[in-house]
Amino acid sequence: MSTDPNRMTGADWIAESRHAYCIAMAARMETARAEATARGDRDAARRRDLLRTLFTAETRNIVTGEPKRIVPDEEAVRLRVAEDEERASQEHAAYLAAARKRLGLDPPRANPSAYRPYRGGLPTLGKHR
C-alpha cells in the first residue's frame, strides 16, 4: 500500500481511495490554477481548471456507481478469470444457437422427414417430381 496518491495500485485503487484521490487532485488543480492566474499564465490556468473539472466529474461517477469490494490482487485475478470464462461460454452458446437455427435444427420441424431442401435445377412451380 503506497501513501503517494500518484502510485495507487491493487486494492487501493477502488471506491473510497479513488474518491479521496480525485478530491485531492481537484484541490491540487485548484491551487495550481490560482498560482497560474497570479503569474498571468492564462493557458496553464485554463488547463488546470479543465483538469479540476475532470477530477470533480470523476468523483460523481464514483459516488453514483455500484460499491466495489476490496479484495487481494490474487482474488481479483481469480474473479476476472471466472467472469471471462462465463462471458466466453455465453458467447459460445449464442454462436451454437445461431448455427443450429441456420442449419434448420432449431426449432425442430413437425415432420422432419418431409423436409427436402431445394436441390437446384429449374423450379417446378409447386409440382412434385
Structure description:
This protein is mostly helical. It has 2 domains: 1-70; 71-105. It is built from 3 helices and no strands. The chain has helices spanning 15-39, 42-64, 73-103. α1 runs antiparallel to α2. It starts with 14 loop residues before the first helix and ends in a 26-residue tail after the last helix.
Rounded to the nearest angstrom, the radius of gyration is 30 Å
What class would the helix/strand composition place it in?
A: mainly alpha
Number of helices: 3
Unreliable sequence segments: none
* Straight-line N-to-C gap: 80 Å
Tell me how many strands there are.
Answer: 0
H/E topology pattern: HHH
Average pLDDT works out at 77
Q: Which shape, going by the Cα principal axes?
A: elongated
Beta-strand proportion: under 5%
Q: Mind summarizing the main beta sheet?
A: none
Summarize the structure.
By secondary structure, this protein is mainly α.
Highlighted features:
about 130 residues, mainly alpha, 2 domains, 3 helices
List the helices and strands and how they pair.
Layout: H1 15-39, H2 42-64, H3 73-103
Helix pairs in contact: 1-2
